[in-house]
Amino acid sequence: MRRSRVRVLRQSLLMLLATVLAAAGALPARAAATTDWSVAVVKSTMQRFTPATIGGWSYPVGLYLYGQYQVYLRTHDAAYLTYLKSWVDRFVSANGTINQSFNSLDSMLAGRLLIILHHETGQSRYAVAAATIRHRLDSYPRTADGGFWHADTSSRAHQLWDDGLYMVVPFLAEYGKEFNDPSSDAEAVKQLTVYANHLQQPDGLLQHAYDESKTASWANPTTGLSPEQWCRANGWYGMAVVTALDDVPTNQPGRATLLTDLNRFAAGLQQYQDPATGRWFQVIDKPTGAGNWTETSCSSMNAYTLSRGAQQGYIDSHYAALAQKAYHGVLARLSIGSNGLTNLTTISIGTNVGNYAYYIGRTQATNDFHGLGSFLIMNEQLRTPTGS
């Protein structure tokens, strides 16, 4: 009995020591195994920013707050939802007017929060605001085969970027589910199919962008494709497919095509996952390229896609192990600083379409919202009940 008590006491002291060292900035996330890293990231971000200072209406903030909402669903900490609502209410009036032009797909991702708040509060103003985005899509410019342009501007005309799928497809799928709108479900599936038809390659992964006019500086004059497979663009795509499969009806026409495309995509991720770290490289299909580096946000996105896809039976169950390896690779990039706040490193900042040198030269930021949001989404999918 005495030995058992000594062993328990020793384990408790070791856990306490790990937590103290992590708080002092001496340990990475994986060493402090009992920390709830989702809660730690959310509390750190809420301490760094108020709803008024976290930023304007934008997709990176929208992504982060969607991740924060996932943590709320588990913890039921009302402060997390109140914070989200306070941010959204900066832009939505009492009658549902939202002062945004919605002339780019990027501007639509945060619309998911409108659907969330309608679901949580029942207030009609959020439905009115969400409908503003949905109706804008009815007149939004498209390629000849129906793909939404990345933006309704001369510099983005006729272009499809993988990024745009996550900006608009989850909104459509969730709008269809919340408001029983079959046209939104059909549109979500159509966009994923059109984009994949242009961008998905034989290795299962996607080129970053396609220009129907073939006039963009980066576009191949024959194919219209951009030259590289950027990792986060692929991460956006994977999460968009899984979200659509989760939310559109199981008898939705075109669903079988999405499953085929997702399985090809998962095989591509497996091919290029870094065996040493579990993460993926900034230019995903050139892991040995000079200057290439493993990037945190896309690794989180890919881990989520593989884990959720395997859990739901969309892809083979063996991909769950790849997701776990990626998950721990991302955790190695997370730590607690001397100020007690979390730091998530090696996140590519906002990125346009470019060549190899452009992608590997992007700033590697700490606590960028692309990384924080995707981390929370991943962590809520993969965390264990006792920690991480």
Structural descriptors:
388 residues; mainly alpha; Glycosyltransferase; two-stranded antiparallel sheet; two-stranded antiparallel ribbon; 14 helices; 54% helix; globular; disordered N terminus
Describe this structure in words.
It contains 14 helices and eight strands. Residues 1-27 have low confidence and may be disordered. With 388 residues, the protein is mostly helical.
CATH topology: Glycosyltransferase
CATH C-level class is Mainly Alpha
N to C succession of SSEs: HHHHHHEHHEHHEEHHEEEHEH
The profile of the biggest β sheet is: 2 strands, antiparallel
Q: Please give the radius of gyration in angstroms.
A: 21 Å
**Contiguous uncertain segments of 5+ residues:** 1-27
Number of extended strands = 8
Q: What class, by secondary structure content?
A: mainly alpha
Summarize the topology.
Blueprint: H1 2-23, H2 37-48, H3 59-75, H4 78-88, H5 111-121, H6 124-138, E1 159-161, H7 162-179, H8 182-199, E2 209-211, H9 231-247, H10 255-272, E3 280-281, E4 294-295, H11 296-312, H12 319-331, E5 334-336, E6 342-344, E7 347-348, H13 356-360, E8 364-365, H14 369-382
Antiparallel strand pairs: 1-2, 3-4, 5-6, 7-8
Helix pairs in contact: 2-14, 3-4, 3-14, 5-6, 5-7, 7-8, 7-9, 8-9, 8-10, 9-10, 9-11, 11-12, 11-14, 12-14
Summarize the structure.
With 388 residues, the chain is mainly α. The protein contains 14 helices and 8 strands.
